[in-house]
Structure formats: C-alpha cells, structure tokens
Amino acid sequence: MKLFVMLLTCLAAARAETHVLVVAGLGGEREYEQRFSTWAGELGKLSGAQVLAGAAASRDGIRSALAQIAKSVTPQDDFVLVLIGHGTFDGVEYRFALPGPDITAIELADWLNRIPAGRQVVVNATSASGACMDVWRAPNRVVVTATKSGNERNATVFARYWVEALRDPAADTDKNETVTVLEAFHYAAEKTKKFYESQKRLATEHPQISDAGGIAGRIYLARFGATEKARTDPAKRALLARREQLEQEIDKLKHEKAAMPLPEYKKRLEALLIELAKTQAEIDR
Amino acid sequence: MMATLLALALLAGPGEPLYRRAESAWKQGDYRAANDLFRAAVAAEPQNARYRVRWGRLFLERFQPADARQLFEEALELEPQNAEAHLGLALVAAESFEGAAVELAEKALKLDSRLTEARELLGRLALEDGDFARALAVAPDSEAVRLTVELLADRTPTIPNPGAASYAEAARHFILNRRYEEGVALYRKAIELDPRLWRAHSELGINLMRLGDEAGARRHLELAYSHDYRNPATVNTLRLLDSYSKFDTIQSGNIILKLHKKEAAVLLPYVKAEMERALSTYERKYRFQLERPVQVEMYPDHEDFAVRTLGMPGLGALGVTFGYVVAMDSPSARKPGAYHWGATLWHELSHVFVLAATRHRVPRWFTEGLAVLEETTPSPEWGDRLDPEVISAMQERKLLPVTQLDRGFVRPSYPGQIVVSYFQAGRICEFIQQKWGWEALLKMIEAFAAKKTTAQAMETALGVKPEDFDRRFLEWLDARYGKLVRGFDSWRTGMKALNAAAREKRYDAVLREAPALRDLFPDYVDAGSAYECLAEAWLAQGKPDEAALELERWAKAGGRDPGLLKRLADLHWESGRKKEAAAALERILYIAPAGDEELHRRLGDLKLESGEFNVAIREYQVVLNSNPTDRAGAHFRLARAYHLANRAEEAREHVVLALEAAPGYKPAQKLLLELNK
After folding, report:
1. Helix (H) or strand (E) holding A223
2. pLDDT tier at B466 (50, 70, 90 boundaries)?
3. Is residue B218 over pLDDT 90?
C-alpha cells in the first residue's frame, strides 16, 4: 500500500497541478463578514488559492471562476473548492448565502461536474452544509461538510480549524511533511469537537467526509518541509528502494504485532526503525 | 353526636365521599388512587379549599413540592385565612431552606393556635438556626425537638423512650451541623427502632455515601427505593453510585482521588500535587494531624456534583466537604474562566482540617470564613473577587452581626445573601488575622472544639465582645472598601462609557479614563474590565509591552479568562520574556487544564527551553494523555524531554513509539540515531 502511494506521488509530482478556489460568502453581520474573509484570505495564502470574497463572491463571480477553471484544468490535475460562510436548508434545497442571488447545491454540482480534473475536493464549511453530501457525492470526488445534515443551522467554526490544519505541523500525523485532505479533515473535525467541549456548549456541527474513491489520504493540501529532491536523483535510487522496502517491512511487522510477544516486536521494530533512520540520513546527505 | 354527624353528612357537598376515599387510599399507601380521588373531589367541589390543601399534602409527601405549593396557593385564593394552607406553604419553603418558612409557619399558628404541626415546624426551623432556646420555647411538647436539643448539646437524653421519627429528625440536624458520623449513628438508631422507616434508610444511605461507604450507602438506598421511597435524592444518589464505574480511584499516601476516566490522566498530576501541597501546609498551619486519608471526588458533570449536595443548606456551588470526603466540580464542569479549581480545593481542604480539629463543632460562618481566607494562601491571585452583589449589600448595610452570620448561609433572607455571607465571613477571618494574628484564629478553633459559642470564642481568643467586634470590623471594612462603596454608582456609569469608547475605538479616551476606574474597583476582572480596555488600547497604539503590563496587572488582580491569559503569554513571548509567558500559561492550569493540547505543548516547549525538564515532561505527558491528533509528535516531544533530562530508556521508548506511528518522522529518526550512538 505504501509503495503504491509513493509511486502515485512520484507520478503526481511529475505532471499534476492543484487548482484551489476559496469563496467567502455573505456574512450578514460585520463580525461574520470579517471572520469569513479572514479565513478565506489565510487559506488563499496557505494554498496559493484564488479567493472570492465580498462583492466578487457573487453567483456570477463563482460561475465565471469555475468556468475558467474548467477550461484550464486537465484530467491529471486536482481541483479543490472551499466554501466559507452561511448556508441554509429549507428541507428540500441547500443554498449558499451570497451577495445577490444565492446558489443551490444542485447548481454547484452541475458546475463542478463540468470541471475535468481527475480528482476533486469540495469542502463546504457552512452551516447546513451536510445537506450537500448526497448531491455532490461522485467517484473521485471527496466531499467534506461542516455539519452532518441540513438541520444543523448554526454558524460553524469548522472553517477556522480547516485553515489551521494547513499551517499546524500537528495536522501532519504521519510526519511526511505534507498534509492530506484526510489529515486536514481529522484535525479540523477533532478541533471542532474540542471547541464545543471546552466552551461547554452543545455541539451544533458534526463534520462529515465522503471519500468514495479512497483518495482523501493521497491528495496533498500543504507541505511543511522542502520537497524531496532525492526522488529525481538517479544516484539515490537504490537508497529510495531500500527505504521503501524498510517501510514495507515495518508495515508488515505492525500487522503481525498481535501475534508475537511484545519484547520481540519491540526489538524487531527498533532494529528496522534504526535501519530506516540510517537510510534516510544517507538519502538526505 | 349521631345527629351532628348526620347533619354534617347532609351538609357535605358532592366532593365529600370522594375526598374521604382519597384520604383512605392515602392511608393505605395507594398514592395513585388517592391522587385520582383528590382530583375528582376538587373537580366536584372547586370552591373547597380543604380538599386542595390535603391534596397538596399528598404531593408534598410524595416528593413533588412544586405541585404542592400550587395547590396551597390555590387554597389560599379561595380561603385567605386557611391556616393549613399557610402551614403547607411553610413546609414547602422549609424543604428548600427558604427564609419565608418561619413567617409562614408563624402565620399558620396565629390563625390556628392549636396547629401542633406548625409549632413543631417552628421548633425545627429554630434548631436549624442554632437557636435551641427558641426551639424549646415554640415547641415545648415536641419530642423530636427536645431530643435534638439534648443530643446536639452532648447531653444524655432525658426523654423516656424516644421514637424512631424523633431519632431520624435529630439525625437530620446533626447532618446539618456537619456532624456526619454522629448523624449516621442516630439514623441507625432510628432504623433499629423502626426498620420500616424508609426516609431514614434513604438519608442514612446518602450520608454513608458522604462518608465514603459506598456499599453501605447502596444497601440502604436500595431498600428505601424498593419500598417506594423514591424522592429525587434517593433516585439521583443511586444513579450517581451507578456512574462510579466511570471513575478511577487513585490512592497515594494520605490522598484518595476519584476522577472521571475521561480526564483522570490529564488532571491527576496537577490535582495530586496541589493536594499534597495543601495538606502539608495545613498540617503546619493548623498544627493538626489528620487521622486518615482525605478523599477528593471531582465531577466533570455539575449535575453529578449537585446530587452530592441535595438536601444541604447553603451554596455548595463548587465544592462540599463531608468530614474526610470532599466532592467538587472538576474544571471541565464549568465554562473556562468561570472556575478556579485550585482555590476551591484549598477551600474545601481547609474545611477538612477545621471540621476535624473542632470535632465538627464549629459555626458555619467561621469554617467558611477561614476557608475563604485560605483560598488565597497559595497566591493572592486566587480566591473569589469582590462581587457587585456584595458591594450593593455593603451600600445597603445588609451585613449581619457576627453572632447571626450563620443565618445568612442557612436561611438567606434576600437573593445573593449566601454570596455576601461568604464574603463577610472571609473578611472577618482576614480582619482577625490582621489585628490579632494567626494564633487568635487557632485559639478560636480550640474554643469551638471546647463547645464555646461564637460570643464565648471571641471573648476567649480576642478579648472582645461580639458587638464591639462588629463595630471594629465595620470600621476596618469601611477603610478598605468605603471609597468603592460610595463611588460604586459612578464607577458603573464610568464603565458603561469606557466600554462604549472601546467599542468605538476611541482609544485616547480609554487611556485617559480607564486607570481611575481600574484603581477604584481593582477586583473587577470580568469581561470588559478596565484592564482589558486598556490592553486593547495600548495594542491599537502599537505598544504591546504596555498592553502586556496591563494584562499582567489584570492577571495579578485575579483575571481568569484563558483566552486573555494566552494573549498575555503571546505578548510576553513575542517580546522574548519567555519566563513570564510560561507563568501566564501556568495560571491556566488552575482554570482549564483539560482539553487544551496546545496549552500543554506550548508550556512544555517553554519549560524545555528554560531547562525545567521535569515540568516539560509533565506537560508533554499530559499532551499524550489527552489523546492527541498528533500522537507521533506527542511521543517525540516527550522523548526529547527525557533525553535532555538524561533519562535515556524513557527517551528511547517514546521515540520508538513516535516512529511506530510515523516511521518517516525525520526529527524522531535523528533522535533515535543519537540515542543509539
């Protein structure tokens, strides 16, 4: 499994581009306007995204931006859309609140379907966003919503932690110096839960993820370390192969943990980890 | 006689047969039928006040005081001079220690001087106020009152063969006087005389639990419950006993801690260390050795804690002490910033010493006052701040004479009097300490242990009569708070204007007006305080060091908002004052230590940097115990701290665990190689 991921990464590094669009919807009140545009702005900086906020975040503005993206992306590319703001659900239809006419989940689904990116990520961090889950679910599309249904209608904090995930190394749980969609989701969902617990408030949002294609763990949103140059260095191919082999052995050993005495497991694990650390040191030299 | 009965029957309305059947069903213990029949009787004769009163009494007996109150009030609307209805209302008020109980019972007695139950109630109420003479005067024929007075005064009862109910009533008063073990013995005596006295079984169970005997508690509570004695205290205490499977019990030396499993690992290092510190400090201060370990229970759900205080007078809002057992809110039971668990712990542990040293013969005002004073022993920043409610009470001269101060705790006569009484008792002890020294307070403890009254203890330990003491205390209080009390209304107006200026970003006005408002009422540290407005203004003017100075003042005055404390830590950290940054974060450990990985991680980093490796290890271990999202990172930080503390084996263990979670974690790989050299 690990090998497969590594190969995919190499392939992706060679050809793929990630297009990110962030939309900060209508705040309604000054406090929310400020909050939404701040989060969107930070997200823009962290992920090099195109940001639509204020008057630019209109129905036409979004349609035009998505149409433009549809023209420029290829099936080898990834596309990420993040919606921040207020959403509503009347029992039938979800609407994203915008200056001027709102847009519905169905309209957005239509526009998203026209984007030829091989993999899509749609993060709807608005209230009532859970109502979009079924409408947007598609193969090779990850859908993240701040709420579990359209009935969770209070303003959300999920977006705040989604932004934080992209700059906090703690979100990178496997410590490979990148944050994937899955890692960002786990981080933001956990932080959202703890926010309500610490404030002694009843949680009014329960983040959800739909990842039908099992791709959320392979789409990168942020990198913390320098990109690994060794991947393209022919002199280090043997070391890279050795590293992959060791990683596989560690994975295998971890699977066998329950079936062997703990001291033996620890001894073997430590030996493999030392070997892996030495190999990595050679690669980085 | 027959003719009279016949005439009565003929005069009786259509509800009378139903009413009689209701009474009969009630007598036989068929409460449901009695309820239905009372309802039918009232429907048949809506103008009959007596039916409503009796129906209300059924509700009262079956633990539904709110419904009972409503029926008594309806009866009084029909018949304003109905003595039984007034008595009913008095009984309802007495259950919840309302000040109106006495007045209502007196009114009932005035309307019907033969109403023995009203006399008995007045006697009980006088006992609750500690006024034995009055109790005997108003209820001279009450066996329960006479027995209670004799037993509370440690005299051998002179009443021949008192009944079980009288022993149970005496037991209740022992509990109210916090003489738990003697109270339990009296409940046992009541049950011995009448094994079917289910109320006594229930109350015995509740009090056995307060003394830490969970098995005994369960036995008696289940007996009461299975015999249909299901008042909220019985049901909720049984539920709480069931929930104990979710708690960990940790014993270490003279400490027993009961912490909820979900937070035990996070709270344990802090609570245990603080308990050890408090107990050793108190042993020295009170010159008293406790006989057995102290048990502290911390409840993350305030409702669970509230069950422990059911049927108790007074506030008991944060913690309560039953001899050697303390029950209190855990920090996660409250909104962050609303509760300082460290101060509450020191408060309650002070009770443990004072109750033990006086063998529980101490007036409520004194033990509470001393406990309030002790809240600030670890740091003057701790303890409750002066409350606007208290200032109003001082303005309106509502403070009680010291000999009557207990009444302010047990039976408050106005909203907020309990809070005011805590404040007054605390300041009285502070005044005694300042004028006569700590020795005088110890002498008072000795006097109370020797069963002296407040007046006698004051004369013995301080050489003053209570009335002289009150006068000197009020002078002292005025010197300290007089300026604020007199200027409080203008402070309120000034604060309103200050907050408006801050909202409108008129920072020059904030900087001009805030210092005087801050200095007039320095204890005001809640949201929108002058400190906060000043800090915001300094920041807006690009002066972060001034802002930090202001927030530091706020923290030293007792500011507890974790968000602002973190802001203070940031300001110190950004200016390179790392020691001060760590101190700001350390304050949060006493306010909201659970559920905040970032707090412990940052504090650990600062402590690691300053070479305090053991504190860093504690903080990183707490991060790990918080079930963090970044498990590999948590293990790695702990490994690094162990490595710097020269604890190689533990460092190796944690670095391997970090790499097991994330094999490609480069800093951990480097540490592993370093450890392996």
Report:
1. strand A220-223
2. very high
3. yes
CB contact under 8 A, B672 and A277: yes
What domains lie within chain B, and their CATH numbers? Answer: 143-230 (1.25.40.10), 248-464 (1.10.390.10), 468-595 (1.25.40.10), 596-677 (1.25.40.10)
pLDDT at residue B8 above 60?
no
Does domain A14-223 fall under CATH 3.40.630.30? My reply is no
Cα A115 from Cα A127, distance rounded (Å)? 25
With a cut of 70, say whether residue B3 has pLDDT above it. Answer: no
Per DSSP bridges, beta strands A18-24 and A94-96 are: unpaired
Domain ranges of chain A: 14-223, 230-284
Q: Is there a contact between B669 and A280 if contact means CB atoms under 8 Å apart?
A: yes
Q: Mark yes or no for CB contact B661/A284 under 8 Å.
A: no
Closest residue of chain A to B631, computed from CA coordinates: A173
Give helix then strand counts, H and E, for chain B. Answer: 35, 5
What CA–CA distance (Å, rounded) separates B76 from B293?
A: 53
* Residue of A175, A270, A281 lying closest to B662 (CB–CB): A175
DSSP string, B500-551: HHHHTT-HHHHHHHHHHHHHHSTT--STT-HHHHHHHHHHHTT-HHHHHHHH
pLDDT at res. A225: 64
Look up residue B538 and give its two tokens. Answer: 């300094």
Contact B106, B125 (CB under 8 A): no
Mean pLDDT value of segment B378-382: 95
Share of chain A above pLDDT 70, in %: 92
Contacts of residue B80, Cβ cutoff 8 Å, sequence gap at least 6: none
What residues of B are in the A interface, CB distance below 8 Å?
332, 334-336, 592, 595-597, 601, 628-633, 652, 656, 659-666, 668-670, 672-673, 676
Using CB atoms within 10 A of its CB, is residue B526 exposed (0-12), middle (13-18) or buried (19+)? middle
Average pLDDT over residues A242-261: 93
